[in-house]
Write a structure and sequence with these properties.
- Helices cover about 55% and strands about 15% of the residues.
- By secondary structure, the chain is of the alpha+beta class.
- The protein has a 4-stranded antiparallel beta sheet with strand order 1-4-3-2, with helices on both faces.
- The longest helix has about 70 residues.
- The chain is elongated, with a radius of gyration of 27 Å.
Length: about 230
């Protein structure tokens, strides 16, 4: 992937600096995310550990894309919500399903490598029951969005049984972590190969130095013999 991976002094991978793009091709991830969102009739996006998107959103609802994300307050709250859901999922090591700050149901599939959270694939923007206007009116006022527009938009959000949402989260979790594991194993193999190459080059250099030193000693011996 042409990515420079940070190593610790013991030549182990620096897991804290590992990013999603280090282990998963973003183009491939985007394609899978798009297809998953279309097939499951839900929204999806992949974020880093800070909640910042690393892919383009897939199948976002008007409620989120055109209204909630239309203001800085709404956008900032989404980032914080994404981060929180990723952390909750990482704690349990499995998908997390819960409400976002705006009142929709989202799910988070943590991308975990060697126990380290490197990012989260989020999905959802759904409801498990018909919406009630009061909560969304309150949210609209808090993020500086027209309450009527938000209430009308939430009526177009899909209402899906909670167990179906949980199953979707499980599928997402299994696939993205398989991709992450394969990518991580490739990096480890590349690191080991580089270490072996470095060791071989070092050994070759040492042999050359010893050979040069031996030849120098022989030359000096010959000079001494000729003087005698």
């Amino acid at each position: 992937m042409g990515i420079i991976i940070k190593l610790l002094e013991n030549n182990e991978l620096d897991m804290k600096s590992l990013e999603i793009k280090d282990i998963i091709d973003i183009g491939l991830l985007q394609k899978f995310q798009d297809d998953f969102a279309f097939a499951m009739n839900c929204a999806s996006v992949t974020v880093d550990i800070d909640g910042t998107p690393v892919t383009e959103p897939s199948c976002y609802t008007k409620f989120c894309d055109r209204l909630v994300h239309s203001t800085k307050k709404g956008d900032d709250r989404c980032a914080a919500s994404h981060k929180r859901m990723g952390e909750e999922a990482a704690k349990s090591g499995k998908p997390f399903v819960g409400f976002c700050h705006a009142g929709l149901i989202d799910f988070a599939a943590p991308i975990i490598v060697e126990g380290q959270l490197v990012g989260t694939v989020l999905g959802g923007q759904m409801l498990s029951e018909p919406p009630k206007d009061e909560g969304f009116i309150k949210t609209a006022r808090e993020i500086d969005v027209n309450p009527t527009d938000l209430v009308n938009a939430v009526k177009d959000v899909n209402v899906v049984a909670l167990n179906q949402i949980e199953k979707a989260a499980s599928v997402l979790f299994i696939v993205v972590n398989a991709l992450a594991k394969n990518g991580y194993n490739k990096i480890k193999l590349d690191v080991v190969s580089q270490q072996l190459s470095n060791n071989f080059n070092q050994a070759t250099l040492s042999i050359e130095e010893l050979t040069a030193s031996s030849m120098n000693i022989s030359s000096q011996q010959e000079e001494l013999n000729s003087e005698n």
